[in-house]
Specification:
The chain has helices at about 1-15, 20-25, 40-50, 50-75, 80-95, 105-115, 120-135, 140-155, 160-175, 180-185. By secondary structure, the chain is mostly helical.
Length: about 200
């Protein structure tokens, strides 16, 4: 029990480190929350500050998920690891360092899945790429990929606890994209022009 609590606390604070905000603030001298979509995630950083900064934030956010799972494994079993996997996402979404605001968990979720279930991570990444290529919407790709995770857990032979973990992750990801859903419905969502 203590190991699970410790793993979740560590995971939360790892997730709460706002790399997008830090890169924008200390490398470019701006508050990324005032630009583009206002999100601190890699997509907005990439769009506003360019591919180098975007890639740095992407790798850092993925790394948060990997690190949280790695530490959790040293502190407990499957339940501890899955709980820490969710805690790092909560930290990323509601960071104590940003007034309980944060990112949309997609990159950090990828890091968690790469450590927990690599096959699910890679298939989910493929779903994301296919959706973005077909529609041009990064946000839609993120939601579709997240929604596929619980089913991919079952298809790859993971237990019920992994399915429940994937379901909570998917619900959280869609919830964090509520504003994107609104923009998709009104036709004002940012679209990547892949075929220009």
């Amino acid at each position: 029990m203590l190991g699970t609590v410790a793993a979740c606390v560590l995971a939360y604070f790892i997730g709460a480190v706002p790399f997008g905000y830090l890169v924008a603030r200390y490398v470019h001298g701006i508050d990324i929350r005032g630009y583009g979509s206002g999100n601190i995630g890699a997509t907005n950083v990439w769009r506003v500050l360019g591919p180098v900064s975007g890639a740095v934030v992407l790798l850092a956010d993925v790394g948060k998920g990997v690190l949280a799972v790695y530490l959790a494994r040293a502190l407990g079993g499957t339940g501890t690891v899955l709980a820490a996997g969710l805690a790092v996402l909560v930290g990323h979404s509601w960071s104590v360092f940003l007034g309980w605001r944060g990112g949309k968990i997609i990159a950090t979720s990828l890091g968690v899945l790469l450590s927990l279930a690599p096959a699910v991570a890679l298939i989910g990444l493929g779903v994301w790429v296919a959706t973005v290529v077909l529609t041009g919407y990064v946000s839609l790709g993120s939601m579709v990929a997240a929604a596929s995770v619980p089913f991919l857990m079952l298809l790859t032979g993971r237990g019920w606890e992994y399915f429940l973990f994937g379901l909570v992750m998917a619900v959280l990801a869609v919830y964090r994209h509520a504003e994107n859903i609104r923009r998709l419905r009104t036709g004002t969502e940012f679209r990547v022009r892949l075929w220009k």
